[in-house]
Design a protein that fits this description.
This protein is α+β, with helices and mostly antiparallel strands. The protein has nine helices and 20 strands. Strands 5, 6, 7, 13, 14, 15, 16, 17 and 18 form a nine-stranded mixed sheet that branches. Strands 1, 2, 9, 10, 11, 12, 19 and 20 form an eight-stranded mixed sheet that branches. It has a three-stranded antiparallel sheet with strand order 3-8-4. Helix 1 runs parallel beside helix 5. The two termini are about 20 Å apart. The mean pLDDT is about 90.
């Protein structure tokens, strides 16, 4: 049996960055990750967007927090940030939740850079369907470089990491500690900690359910992002058509390709974890077929040049959001302290850069005496 101050369950970006922060505060920290390496799941299989607020005209708070966190992320991880492309947002004439004027006013309100797109870019769009196109400032991150940087940071901070190790359940132990039963390469084991942070994203309720603790209502989507070689006109650009049932095409630096996602076709299926129901088994993976052709048929109506894209595969992942986010497309963090048992905190964020909001909450909690 091992004893530590804090056990972090989940070796994604959130779990690792939180572990580093707590270690630098003087705690002895252990990360357990059921996969063979860090940052392999949702931290990699996403659109790799470093948000600056443009995506959230219906949630002013999310947009403002994105602006603040954007600056912190690119300052802390400059070698992981890709800023060598132009980014454009286009507002559709029909079915958009905002007009071009509303989007422009929104960007000015949050202080996000925006200007009309150059004529050569505007000509790529069908202006019967697109009201206006804007040049903005938004970057991407390289998930492989970020993983390497995270490994170095954790090693420098002397954070312990156990890979291929699954947290089976959390139970009360003696001396104001929690016991976490583990299953790893060497068989079953146990760690005792003063604080356990459940940072398993789509797996949060798996640990809660097996520990007979209350399930957190969450919505999960089985998602696909197509990997494509874009036409030459977009080889050094990214585009988001908004705000509604539209799409984004963004550089995906680890593969030298672009991701194509579509609000209607990226989610293949969905389910809810209800408050008193068991979480869906983690191994549940319905057979999925790519929806790329459906995406393509729709996006070429807005940008005809995308017909010359070449499909190279897909990224598949479970996307998890709070049900409230479906109403306004907001991305608040989930931060539940002492959830069902004293000492257990559940953490989930919808964007990689809002990890700083979690760190702020941890600092507030620590100062109030709520964290050891």
């Amino acid at each position: 049996m091992t004893q530590v101050d804090t056990l972090v369950v989940g070796g994604g970006f959130f779990g690792c960055r939180i572990a580093q922060h707590l270690r630098l505060q003087g705690q002895e920290v252990l990360i357990v990750e059921q996969g063979p390496d860090l940052l392999l799941r949702a931290s990699y299989n996403n659109q790799a967007r470093v948000h600056q607020g443009y995506h959230y005209p219906r949630s002013l708070l999310t947009a403002i927090r994105s602006r603040a966190n954007f600056a912190r992320f690119i300052e802390e991880y400059p070698e992981c940030v890709v800023d060598s492309f132009e980014k454009y947002y286009a507002v559709a004439r029909q079915f958009s939740h905002v007009t071009a004027k509303q989007f422009r006013d929104f960007c000015r309100r949050i202080g996000a850079p925006i200007e009309p797109a150059p004529l050569r870019v505007q000509r790529l769009f069908d202006h019967g369907r697109i009201e206006e196109v804007f040049l903005v400032k938004e970057f991407a991150f390289d998930a492989v470089k970020l993983r390497d940087r995270v490994r170095r940071d954790l090693e420098a901070a002397a954070v312990k990491i156990w890979l291929d190790t699954r947290a089976v359940r959390v139970v009360e132990a003696t001396g104001q500690r929690l016991g976490v039963e583990l299953q790893g390469p060497g068989g079953a084991g146990r760690v005792e900690a003063r604080r356990v942070l459940n940072c398993t994203y789509s797996g949060i309720n798996h640990l809660l359910g097996s520990s007979r603790l209350p399930i957190i209502p969450l919505k999960h989507e089985g998602t696909e992002m197509a990997l494509v070689e874009p036409p030459e006109e977009l080889s050094n650009a990214g585009v988001t058509v908004m705000c509604g049932p539209f799409f984004s095409i963004m550089p995906f630096p680890p593969r030298g390709l672009h991701t194509l996602s579509h609000v209607r076709y990226t989610p293949h299926h969905w389910w809810h974890d209800q408050a008193r129901a068991e979480a869906r088994p983690e191994g549940h993976r319905p057979e999925l077929r790519s929806a790329y052709q459906h995406m393509l048929r729709d996006v070429v109506r807005y940008m005809p040049c995308l017909a010359r894209s070449t499909y190279r595969g897909s990224l598949w992942e479970v996307k998890t959001v709070l049900p409230a986010s479906e109403q306004d497309d907001s991305r608040p963090i989930l931060f539940k302290v002492d959830h069902g048992i004293r000492g257990l905190t559940c953490v989930m964020g919808g964007k990689i850069d809002n990890v700083y909001d979690v760190i702020t909450e941890l600092n507030v909690l620590h100062e109030a005496g709520g964290l050891p």
